[in-house]
Amino acid sequence: MVFHKSVPLQNQSRAILKLLEKNLVNKDFVEYQYIQLSQIPTSHFQSALPRLPIPELKHTCDRYLAAQRPLLIDEAFRKTEANVNHFRDGVGKQLQQLLKDYDNKNKHTSYISELWFDKYLRARTPLPLNYNPIIVLNRDDKTEYNNQLIRGTNLIVSSLRFYKALKSELLGPEIFHLNPKKSDTEKLRYILSKLPPKLAYIGAYLYKAFPLDMSQYPNLFQSTRIPETDKDRLITISDSKHITVQYKGHFYAFKVLSVSNDILPASQIMEKLHFILNDKVEPNPFPIGILTTLERNKWATIRHELAENNNETQLKLIDTALFNVCLDTDEVEDDPVKITKQFLHADGSNRWFDKSFSLLLSKDGAAAVNFEHAWGDGVAVLRYAQDIFKDSKDKPRVHPDTKYTGEHSSSVHRLDIHLNDYLKSCIEQARSEYNAICNNLDVNYTIFTGIGKDTCKKNQVSPDAVMQLAFQVAYHKLNGTFVSIYESCSTAAFKHGRTEAIRPCTTATKDFTLAINSNTKPSVPQLKKMIKECSDVHNRLIKEAAMGQGFDRHLFALKTMGEKNGIKSNIFDDPEYAHINYDVMSTSTLNSPAIFSGGFGPVVKDGFGMGYAIKDGFLGVLATNYKDSTSGPDFIGALTKSFEEIFSVLQSK
Fold this sequence. Notes:
It holds the Pfam family Carn_acyltransf. Helices cover 45% and strands 14% of the residues. It has 24 helices and 18 strands. An 8-stranded mixed beta sheet has the order 11-7-6-8-9-10-1-16, with helices on both faces. A 6-stranded mixed beta sheet has the order 12-18-17-15-13-14, with helices on both faces.
């Protein structure tokens, strides 16, 4: 189904729905093409979203000092406090005005958006482990559909249905519902779809439904990161109709959309995947995917040489693909460690880490999404992952008995990559360096059963606060110190919002940690009261961060304004500013019925990367670390002990 380019996307979606309503288009055809047929256009609320606020300078300084207090001895804190007060009353005012002026000149976006893109794209460290996270999907509950070919086909078709709905404004806008029973209804959706954006936003708000920013979603597809010297660039090509598939280190490409942008029959897509999986080619001895694991300046130089060596067309096919699919030859079973290692890094030969996202499938049908982080955050990828999981499970398009003719295999192209001796040596060196890094990475996990979200709610404490408290208690048990902890929080409630940092280490959590880890513990009622105080403080920090009132992004923007205008500031030269941004524990949570786990590497050499889930009946934590700097098993052991002690307090009467 093709509309003229002059027809706005919202009008296209309305036209499709009207044609469907009047039976002027085949219902089965439309249903196959779109994962959703939302009454409310995808970007309906976008122009009405509030802008990300710039916090008051005084509030940011106060919050920054509060976060520093539990990390510093008295003398160091007094020095930092003096620096902050001097900044607040002096050069900070100048930087705040520069930031406000910058924000006023860019009212179409947020003050953090371009600065955050720039930060990511200027980073020179390799993407895998340092930046690219994973979201692992649950298995299909129908065992026979976990076959690599069947599941791969169904997930590809669901991804294309998501893409088509997004492009045609038929994907429902992301909305956070405080009371879904009242706001997530057919009636309210109908009303909001008829109102202009500003009135629709107000109407949703009155029902305590908060539309979220959708500006990152178009970058999911047909997008990639190109390495350049000093600063990479993101490109998006809107008219591509093919995907790329990696198998045994080789690249394949084939079309999945017709000339009129319709999704090809699922049986044809299955046939093409079958052809690839049955290609008798040997594993590629020189897979170019390993080059995307390199330091970015180094990769930029090598990529230029690769293109010059008669590979320009092949690279363009990879860059412009709708998305990338990696069919692996390894089995991971249901082992969280194997799953994490395979999908987070593997050996690099069957990956292209520069792509906006790659859909990964193990030989035994486990599936995950590995995504590049510069273009966007977890909110968009999580929505995509949840939608394709549910769609592929509830509406599979191919089945164990699906038949295909074999006549479409000829349209699959294995990309011939031309390599000279220099490029081959680069691949060998990249493989050696990457293997050394991956061999040093450790993955450990704990599942604490019988206790979870329900226990916390009964005690009127935040489950997330208790989880973060346990991290600190565990670290202190092992090291006797307190360190900077980072918890990610989305600011997608604002136009072009990205993320804000929650700093869970507070004076309240420090007091509790010292108390419960001491030889002379306070009484149980006193400890329970302290947990409640930790929870109250943590809830306030979450609310501030989600409302754009954290201090991390604001200080980062002020620092950037100073750098752009040649203005020095003592607060940013203070070693304690670098210290609080040295995130020994980087944490993030994923709670979704579609998701098995999430994972990412440590952000500092002697740190931990911790993905966690809080369920009604259990807690799950998966931690990554580098073996030559820290002990993952020791930390997980201390964490399990911390859970036992904290929940013993909560469950006591």
